[in-house]
Amino acid sequence: MTPPRQTSPTRPLSRKDLQVIRSLLPYLWEYRGRVILALAFLVLAKVASVAVPLVLKGIVDALDASQNPELMLPLALILAYGGVRIASVVFGELRDAIFAKVTQRSIRRVALKVFRHLHRLSLRFHLDRQTGGVSRDIERGSRGISFLLNFMVFNILPTLVEIALIAAVLLVSYNVWFALIPFVTAALYIAFTLVVTEWRMKFRRRMNEMDSRANTRAIDSLLNYETVKYFGNEDFEARRYDENLAVWERASIRNQTSLAALNVGQGTIIALGVTLLMWLAARGVVDQTLTLGDLVLINAYLLQMFIPMNFLGFVYREIKHSLADMERMFSLLDEHEEIPDKPDARPLQIQGGAVRFENVSFGYTPERPILQDVSFEIPAGHKVAVVGPSGAGKSTLVRLLFRFYDVDRGRIEIDGTDIHDITQQSLRAAIGIVPQDTVLFNDTIYYNIAYARPEASREEVERATALAHLKDFIESLPQGYDTLVGERGLKVSGGEKQRIAIARVILKNPRILVFDEATSALDSHSEQAILAALREVAEHHTTLVIAHRLSTVVDADQILVMEGGRIVERGAHQELLAAGGAYARMWALQQQERRRESLGEQPDTDADTGTPPAGTRPLRAEPL
Length: 624
Fold this sequence. Notes:
Elements: H1 11-29, H2 32-63, H3 75-120, H4 123-128, H5 131-173, H6 176-223, H7 225-230, H8 234-286, H9 292-333, E1 355-365, E2 368-378, E3 383-387, H10 394-401, E4 409-414, E5 417-418, H11 424-429, E6 431-434, H12 445-450, H13 458-467, H14 471-475, H15 494-508, E7 512-516, H16 524-538, E8 542-546, E9 558-563, E10 566-571, H17 573-579, H18 582-598
Parallel strand pairs: 3-8, 3-9, 6-7, 7-8
Antiparallel strand pairs: 1-2, 1-4, 4-5, 9-10
Helix pairs in contact: 1-9, 2-3, 2-5, 2-9, 3-5, 3-9, 5-6, 5-9, 6-8, 6-9, 8-9, 13-15
């Protein structure tokens, strides 16, 4: 990734901040009636708050014997004092209650938008992403939205309104200096806070970066717990984790020390302004140009003005932190959707389910071609198998058929329609897959099977389970279908995970079936049982089988042999054996391997690549 260009510390950050705030406006505008009503209550609350010192001044002047020798209890003023204080509280709480739905709905809508966008991004992005960092960015970003909206409406705006009202009262009622000093003090305070906070944000960003990176490494290590244990690398993982925490610690310390400097500067500015204003007020009382009530009024206004001002500094800092947190979350929305639907894409109208690859070439990167001019067809209701060594491009065919990637050249058609012209949702609804590496949700067995069709009845789920030869296993468990499979399905074996995947695709019942090494984790006995079930399920379905064990594809209508991204042989099982080519060599080696296994010997051939060990000669190709 190219590092950001270094510029002045204020303008680019302010532009980004405004972009983040602008992105929230549509969510606020959805409830504009509530926003306007909340702002009205905000103004009313602050008008009542500013009226409190005015009423207090009247009470003090009424009770000042030097100004009013005939003292009487100012009952009306005392009742008015209580009334405006109650009004200030009531209007403030009404503002909070009205605006609560706006805040929570905005958080929900933004989080959902990011979540949906992540699912729209290509497989390439998800292979490169770091799950721990992304999850932490979303968590902090959602929390930042709540903080930003609440404190912008409930703290910054009220404080600014209050400052304006107080300045207006002081300007009208007293010498211009009584309004000018608070205004200048507030301006200096805000300017100092802005400048220093902008400087401090680089420490916060560094903290966020290291926090996300440490979280990513921690989650990655815990997800691969068994691998860590296999190699005894607990200390190595702890060191890697601590390296990021050490950088985070240094950034955190600098963040805290710079905060102390900011607080000292803010306190000094407020102290100077308050001291100067109180000196003017006290001198006015001595000169008898002001009353004690005026002194109380000015002092009360100072408290109302500068105490929130001190809090305003904290709020602004936290808002800047929230914007930094939100910036990372919103950057996910800027990720390019690599495989979008065409504007005029239409749903796939599945008929027979015929699949056709026409001169398809593809590479994950330009310098790494995977498929080269691959052409084949699976007629509706037929079964085609693809075999070959690892890295030949077999599984890439499946990813292209699901349109996780777009072909570089050529086209893929279903029932004569290019898959680029149909919606991805309808395309994937028409295809079911049993992958080689089945990953399950950290939920129950029932949930994982029913995930193919959440609206399916329990009877349909149990029927799919029986067809996948999984029923006896589930009934042997104390909690049956409610058994939790653990994160990524680690509590069940590889064979059981594949049976769950098979049950899932049976429940989905799509027109096109894909089996990508569907029985690779099963023993020979279980494999034969599953193959029988798959044959029953695949009957009258268009089926693509990616296979390592050639014995699982002998009944295919056509077998494609791939090497180096090209189809080097094609034909039925017996035809390919008779041809004596690559398929026949692979078959002979696998038969030899099976004989050795039946005798309890270790295989000394690579049956996938078809490479015999040095000094050996493959057996003669034998028909099934």
